[in-house]
Amino acid sequence: MERTFIMIKPDGVQRHLTGEIIHRFERKGFTLVGLKMMQVSRELAETHYSVHQERPFFKGLVDFITSAPVIAMVWEGENVVSAARNLIGQTNPTTADPGSIRGDFGVSIGRNLIHGSDAIETAQTEIALWFVEDELVDWKPVRQSWLY
Ligand code: RTP
Ligand code: MG
Question: In the UniProt entry, which residues are flagged as the active site (predicted)?
């Protein structure tokens, strides 16, 4: 089953949106298989966002991610990588669709509340970066076979 890495950024935690965000993923039908609150080291933030290291916003982004605690999570489900990106909305909350997390709660591109892996391969890399294997719980919700 597909998995993705989701992080509630410092602004999401500070604005007490943790429960709201987790609720949206649960209601969609996805399964939480890993979760921890953590203060991110500079090294981890720089590695996580290394694809952006030449961009002008890189230092500010790393400063922000390391400024206060985040919630790191792994969610599992069918097509969860792309579906999570839809739940999250476009990068800039100003243009993110209402109904998405960024569209409903965000105002600034640099304070867009949440991160989600952008592809299946990226998700695998990010899960391995943020979690060790025994922090992830392999469980299946009890379901009727016809019910997702
Ligand atoms: P994320 O990686 O955090 O889930 O966000 P994303 O895929 O939607 O956007 P990405 O292009 O990967 O950018 C990473 C984060 O960098 C910040 N950013 N600031 N000032 C700017 O122009 C700018 N552009 C990007 C955003 O916080 C974005 O989430
Ligand atoms: Mg990204």
Answer: 115
